[in-house]
Amino acid sequence: NSILVYSSCQTPQYVHSTVAACLGISEKKVSIITRRVGGGFGGKAVKAMPVATACAVAANKLQRPVRTYVNRKTDMIMTGGRHPMKITYNVGFRSTRKITALELEILIDAGATLGLSMLMPSNIIGALKKYNWGALSFDFKLCKTNLLSKAIMRAPGDVQGTYIAESIIKNVASSLSLEADTIRKINLHTYESLALFYKDGADKLGVSLNFEDRISSVRAFNESNIWRKRGISRVPITYEVSMFATPGRVSVLSDGSIVVEVGGIELGQGLWTKVKQMNGYALGLLQCNGTEELMGKIRVVQSDTLSMVQGIFTGGSTTSEGSCAAVRLCCETLVERLKPLKTTLMEKSGGSISWNELISQAYAQSVNLSASDLYTPEETPTKYLNYGVAVSEVEVDLVTGKTTVLQTDILYDCGNSLNLAIDLGQIEGAFVQGLGFFMLEEQHMDIPTIDTIPRQFNVEILNSGCHEKRVLSSKASGEPLLLLAALLRMWKCEVGLDSMFQLPVPATMSVVKELCGLNIVKSYLEWKLRVTSRS
Amino acid sequence: MNLVFAIKGKRFELDLSSVDPSTTLLEFLRYQTPFKSVKLSCGEGACGACVVLLSKYDPILKTVEDLTVSSCITLLYSINHCSITTSEGLGNSRDGFHSIHNRFSSFHASQCGFCTPGMCVSLYSALLDSEKTESSSEFTVLEAEKAVSGNLCRCTGYRPIVDACKSFASDVDIEDLGFNSFCKKGDSNKSLPPFNSKKHVCTFPEFLKDEIKSTDFGIPTSVEELQRLLGACKANGNGVSIKLVAGNTGTGYYKDERERNYDKYIDITRIPEMKAIRENKNGVEIGAVVTISKVIAALKVIRVSPGVEKMFGKLAIHMEMIAARKQFPSDMATILLAAGASVNIMSLSRGIKKLSVEEFLQGPPLEAFDLCALAYLNAAFLAEVNDTKVINCRLAFGAYGTKYAIRCKEVEEFLSGKVITENVLYEVITLLGNIVLPQNDTTNLAYRSSLAPDSFSSSFRVIQQKKTSNGYHLDPPKPLPMLSSTQIVPVNDEFYPVGEPVTKSGASLQASGEAVYVDDIPAPKNCLFGAFIYSKKPYTRIKVIHFKENSVPDDILAIISCKDVPKGGQNVGMKFAFSTEPLFAEEVTTCVGQSIALVVADTQRKADTTANLAVVTYKTEDLEPPILSMEEAVKKSSLFEIFPFLYPQQVGDTSKGMAEADHRILSSDITLGSQYFFYMETQTALAMPDEDNHY
User: Fold this and answer.
1) Would you say B691 and A2 are in contact if contact means Cβ atoms under 8 Å apart?
2) Going by C-beta distance under 8 Å and a sequence separation of 6 or more, which residues neighbour residue A498?
3) Do B684 and A110 touch (CB under 8 A)?
4) Active-site amino acid positions of A
5) 3-state DSSP call for residue B291?
6) Which top EC class applies here (chain A) (predicted)?
7) Which chain B residues are Cβ-neighbours of A43 within 8 angstroms?
8) Half-sphere exposure of B516 (CA within 13 A, CB side)
9) Which of B35, B199, B538, B556 sits 20 to 30 Å CA-CA off B176?
């Protein structure tokens, strides 16, 4: 009894083994096909598996095709999302503002089942280590509750880790009555401390956005306005990502067109496009006539777990790179195989040769035109760090608690970007998703809209230079930017309100108003009347 | 009686008796036609993924009216004689993509692509609207920004989408738009061709125009006819449930409505009185089925007395804000209350009667009316002032946790004849604090209470400051600045074409809606549909699953649970690196939302409806109370182990670090909540028994 399942998932290999285990059949009798996914963000990793498996059980029992499109309400209740957390910390610092020690106790609500929650601690600490805390210790408790099992969502743990770091910095700043930025600057890493905290993967941290001028204009605005206040904040991030083994296969058809299979899934993140580009580049090294048009000949096909094994999962921001690396290896093999033929043909014709001619000759001579490979990251670049910094300026209406993001400037190191347009899209999209988390998403439907994104939104991509062992020196862009949105919460503390409060996440209108003071107008009038009666 | 309409210029005719009256346009398109570019995402008309252009023809005026509707809440039977245009109808891979599709692709405005077809239709509709506007047929940047403001996207962060829309604006320089593949640095060609509707798409086919002239359909075309119809229904017997339908947007907010079936639906959109906007010397009368966009347009051009005109203008601006959001924060009742508007209502027994909005809101059977306001509070103030003296005023508040909007007559009386001073403001604030009181079960109670006095003083301060101008700023609320952006990217040709900002593979297909997602794969023959029954209790034994009205609905083919896992298989729904999890709850459920069973029926709708009807009987007697917080879990040592290799490394010695510190902050707390994924495409799969089977 075989079964074929079309699944909208980020984890075809695991859906495959889950279905086989559930039906009690050999894995060779299962195939999982995934063409494209209408948005994943981690939610279609673990949480896609039971949907595919339930359909498989029903189809198996009834011997008829069974499909399920989970309606939005059920999806919200059964899928859930990010891990809630409670953090208690002790922080020690010198009068010089240098932090000397940080001790954390972190409770994570994993829900009723474990899922991938075990990945959270290292992610949280990975992001938190962006500052030099002197010494750092922590105690994690992964709580098993009778609440829905939590899923890993885009930048899982990292987004919370960076937020925790910023909260602590802000708290230290408040206790010394200083701007948070002063504390940030003093406690940023040097190259040596970075290496100590991250062990491997440390590069130089060389990004900053000059914003001193804007601080003074914000102050001026706040002095001349009673009911509207502005705040500005600058937040850096470091984001550690890991590369995973990823398979690929490149085959050339008789008309010179090319079909590509990769382990990675197209979730909207542009994986296929990057793969096509890498393919165009790597086969272009053959230098035939017409290789510049290779991009147009390439088709990336849907993932089929029986055709391409070891696809593991698409996540962690590095699958595009991994898939590109796999494709590059395949192309190198093809180039090796085609080179002798090309040389012979060129000698014969005494001139150049076109890609199509070469391929038709290769077909005639039975050159193997299908190459598959498994990219495995070498020891050193398994992990690397991404850097970025963002400055955001916001305005709060004290009467309603409404917050407007006036301007956000992001500077982000993409290494040698595989596709600038796609990386730009990942940067902006992740930032706005983070904005949703920190400011809006109290109810499930409250995701950002056109009205809530930064009114002025500037992004600059940097290329920090070559790192030979990385996939053509590229860097990830899918998740790290979410972390920068943590700063959105931070400036709320910097609008000149009570400096010691803890702002809950998300900082919705009602939350902000509460912090501004629910009776702010009344208190103001009382004060005004007192002043008038005195004079 | 037959239903006749057109989709993408193609004629459809359905026997009305064969159509379940609650069938939505989306269900018809997605399950019974090849046009799958309408995507199902929220299912309540709030996200825009299923937006289509609905065109109606007026045979007398010989004009076509185009408007966007959410096909997931539009009833199929209501589109008789209408023409539907989907994104695929604008253009596609075979006939050539529409310029809108190309702009979305070239501005890198489509990532997962699930929202893109809806975005394209919304933009197309905005472009058509601006072309039809008599005063200025130019599409402006301002209109461009509003074009897709009712559509949600979870991937892009909107910036590139807004730029794709703005690329059609006449008042924009392409250099001011975001990163795109049209304009490379140093190019001399700095403009993109403008939109031209004549060139592309015919939204209303000629054959349908001809048919409309000749048919008389059983839909009421006058108030009298409607009254007759209702009378006839009533005479036919008690208990006949009737729903009057225009846009059917109510199902978006009243979620139960979606699952309710009526015996009869009456379309009231063809009654001229209800479609009309009539001006008279006292103001304007608006029919009940006039669309919000038409009301806005009318209010902007009506010329009455200057004061009333100003009020109409404000009303128009306000309604634009409501329309842009599509999330039903309808606070019209409050604003109409302050404006002193009245309502004509018709009932079978009493005919047509005119009521003030106040009477209307208080009178049965309309208690539920104002509940559809999702705002924290809304307020409307109308005041006649002489310098800083209030002559008379109306103050209305709603949505703060009250059944219906109210007028604060006490405060109105107090204010009349008073000069606005800080003292007066203070007294009014105190008064309001005792009048505008949310009911106890309201969410955000304190916040809502605080808004009434604060919104009042924000508005009336303006009057006071006109005179006094005592040094401090007025800070009147300003409209948001236009969206703008810059992108700076380093170009590196070393590994060409790697690094090039080429457009996303398949972006145009995603825009036209032809890209195939799992639910777009044509249903195989004999395909069945599943819907989950999940636990509604956190920790409990499952006794039995039964159904409301105590019977398994006939159309249900199976209820799959852990008992249906085949011999040799295991009840696993998730197998990953370090854990496995059950597919269906066995005896005990461990959280709300855990799956208990899968209902299987021959349509998705039937499966969903039945899953909703399922009643699970629980038994908790011999179980410990559930653990519902992290603190409880710690107290009860209910913890998952973390493998040492996944446990991060400590750095240095914190006790030494603490000893070296001059200052210490101890036991500070941070709390972080959850975030739902909100991918536009919800979870989905299609399983097919393959060979080696008797299928």
Assistant:
1) yes
2) A515
3) no
4) 479
5) coil
6) oxidoreductase
7) 677, 679, 683
8) 12
9) B199
- State whether residue B346 is helix, strand or coil: strand
Distance (Å, rounded) from C-alpha B258 to C-alpha A187? 56
Q: Which of A17, A48, A51 sits opposite B575 (nearest CB)?
A: A17
Handedness of CA B307, B332, A436, A270 (dihedral sign): negative
Dihedral pair phi/psi, residue B242, rounded to 5°:
-125, 140
pLDDT digits (tens, 9 = 90+) for B652-663: 999 999 999 999
> In the 3-class helix/strand/coil scheme, how is A24-86 assigned residue by residue?
CCCHHHEEEEECECCCCCCCCCHHHHHHHHHHHHHHHHHCCCEEEECCHHHHHHHHCECCCEE
What lies within 8 Å, CB to CB, of A183 at 6+ separation is: A97, A99, A169, A172, A173, A176
Q: For residue B177, which of B160, B194, B155 has the smallest C-alpha distance?
A: B160
Q: Please, are residues B438 and B402 in contact by the beta-carbon 8 Å criterion?
A: yes
List helix spans (H) across B250-408. 250-253, 255-259, 272-275, 292-301, 306-325, 332-339, 357-362
Q: Are residues B296 and B444 in the same domain?
A: yes
| CATH code, domain with B440 | 3.30.390.50
**Is residue A464 situated within a structural domain?**
no
Same domain, A251 and A352: yes
The distance of A358 to chain B (nearest Cα, Å) reads 21
Type of residue at B321: M
Asked whether residue A207 is domain-assigned, the answer is no
Which of residues B149, B172, B200 is at a domain's end? B200
- Residue among B525, B570, B689 minimizing CB distance to A21: B570
Nearest Cβ partner for B600 among A66, A118, A141: A66
> Which of A182, A205, A225 is a domain's end point?
A182
| Strand spans (E) along A112-191 | 135-144
B374 touches chain A (CB under 8 A): no
Asked if residue B350 and residue B250 are part of one domain, the reply reads no
Q: How many domains does chain A have?
A: 3
Taking each helix axis from N to C terminus, what angle separates B159-166 and A420-435, rounded to the nearest 10 degrees?
120
**Beta-sheet strands, E only, within B567-644:** 572-576, 579-582, 588-589, 595-601, 614-619, 639-640
Residue B401: HSE in the Cβ half-sphere, 13 Å Cα cutoff: 19
Q: What DSSP string describes A328-355? A: HHHHHHHHHHHHHHHHHHHHHHTS--BH
Q: Determine contact, residues B343/B352, Cβ cutoff 8 Å.
A: no
CB contact under 8 A, B152 and A447: yes
Kindly list the residues from chain B whose CB atom is less than 8 angstroms away from the CB atom of residue A9.
685
Q: Which domain holds residue B421?
A: 282-465
Per the domain annotation, does B394 fall within a domain? yes
CB-based contacts of A81: which residues, under 8 Å, 6+ apart? Answer: A43, A150, A151, A153, B674, B675, B676, B677
Give the pair of three-digit tokens for residue A504.
Answer: 């809950």
Whether A316 is in a domain gets the answer: yes
User: What ipTM does the predicted assembly reach?
Assistant: 0.92
Q: Are residues A151 and A112 in the same domain?
A: yes
Backbone angles phi, psi at A128, to 5 degrees: -65, -30
Which ranges of chain A have pLDDT less than 50?
200-208, 487-501
CATH of the domain at A66: 3.30.365.10
User: pLDDT by residue (tens digit) across B178-225?
Assistant: 999 887 655 656 678 888 777 668 899 999 988 876 544 457 888 888
Contacts (Cβ under 8 Å, ≥6 apart) of B24: B71, B72, B73, B74, B75, B76
Strand B242-245 to B264-267 pairing: parallel
pTM here is 0.88
Residues B113 and B228 in one domain: no
From chain B, the residues in CB contact with A486 under 8 A are none
Q: Are residues B243 and B390 in the same domain?
A: no
B391 and B309 share one domain: yes
- Let me know if residue B334 belongs to a domain: yes
Is residue B695 in some structural domain?
Answer: no
Do B453 and B581 lie in one domain? The reply is no
| pLDDT tens track for A248-304 | 999 999 999 999 999 999 999 999 999 999 999 999 999 888 877 899 999 999 999
Domain that holds residue A136: 81-182
